[in-house]
Amino acid sequence: xxxxxxxxxxxxxxxxxxxxxxxxxxxxxxxxxxxxxxxxxxxxxxxxxxxxxxxxxxxxxxxxxxxxxxxxxxxxxxxxxxxxxxxxxxxxxxxxxxxxxxxxxxxxxxxxxxxxxxxxxxxxxxxxxxxxxxxxxxxxxxxxxxxxxxxxxxxxxxxxxxxxxxxxxxxxxxxxxxxxxxxxxxxxxxxxxxxxxxxxxxxxxxxxxxxxxx
Length: 214
Description:
single chain; alpha+beta; 5-stranded antiparallel beta sheet; 4 helices; 14 strands
């Protein structure tokens, strides 16, 4: 019995030789090809308000091309906004135009962190009266000159397991995606003093990314 066994091999052709490509050759070729491709800049945004294009869009003719979303939803945006103030993005398996005044950018430069946030799909939003504001019930205890900043947690943090400090009971426990309101500047150990759902404590700066107010 005759069996025709055929092997598929990648070869490299040079002016003076032809040789079988090694795995290293293929990896170098893939990296070189990828670097030559012009890929669109991908940014992450979070929806601040609900948006139903059919009922809310100012563009009656193109509302069907716009992306619906709810507060806290993560949206991948490609490129810059157009002359009408709309981005082009995708979320939840849908793509379409996104009104820029209803979303806020999450400034994450690391591609892996972007991937985690997109997988998560949503950020918890304190959504009250069409605004996104901190739950700082005892604002009288905050000095007038203290700067309050909003940050998003990129990883889970358990002080009992992750903290380098002996007095970890002074730190806040949080989960990836939590919105933490930071009061004042970072201390010499790399910790902020923050507020999470009305509970305050120290939070490690390297677990957080700034989240703009608007």
